[in-house]
Structures are given as C-alpha cells and as structure tokens.
Amino acid sequence: MRTDEFRQSALNTEEANDVGREVLDNLRSSNFPGLRRVKIEVHGNTVTLRGQLSSFHERQIAISTANRVQGVNRVVDRLSLPPRIA
After folding, report:
1. CA dihedral angle for residue 64, residue 65, residue 69, residue 72, rounded to 10 degrees
2. What string of DSSP letters covers 2-13?
3. How many CA atoms lie within 13 A of 86 on its CB side?
4. What are the tens digits of pLDDT across the range 37-51?
5. Which of 18, 20, 45, 78 has the greatest number of beta carbons closer than 10 A?
6. Residue 2, CB-side half-sphere exposure with 13 Å CA sphere
7. Which strand (E) or helix (H) includes residue 26?
C-alpha cells in the first residue's frame, strides 16, 4: 500500500492506519473499478471518501464498504458524480 493513498490524524495513528488500510483494501478488492480510485482520509473514527465515481450505485457501495469496517463510526461523503446530461 502506498502511504499517500490516505491521510490520518496525528491522534490514534496506529488505529487510524489499521482502519484506513482496511477501508482501502476493501475498496480495492471491489468488483467496481471506480471504487479502486477512491481516496480516503481518516480522523479518529471518521472516514472521509473523496473522488469521482460513475454512478450513484457506486457511491452507495463505497459508503457501505467504509461503514462495514470495525472502528468506523462515521463516513463523510465527498464523492462526486459526473454531471447528468438531459
């Protein structure tokens, strides 16, 4: 795992590393290629997801994947979707 794939707070660094690593591993092992590009930031028990996904469904899967990790109490959604064409 590259160290620049997620940032964590200075507090509880070891726990944040474990939570961040598990969230990233779960996103990377997904069958949805877009989830492999999601960036995360960990502050205590809060995980922030960032990046662009191709569908609302992928967004929901990313949020659900992060929420399932033990130690995550809150997921902040900073994911974006492409503009809808009318």
Report:
1. -50
2. -GGGEEE-STTH
3. 0
4. 999 999 988 999 999
5. 20
6. 6
7. helix 13-28
∠ Cα 80 22 14 (to 5°): 110
- Model pLDDT, residue 70: 93
2, 12, 13, 27, 86 from 37: Cα distances, Å: 13, 25, 23, 8, 27
Mean pLDDT rounded to a whole number for the chain: 85
Record the pTM.
Answer: 0.80
Host H or E run for residue 47: strand 46-52
pLDDT (tens digit per residue) in 11-35: 456 777 889 999 999 999 999 999 9
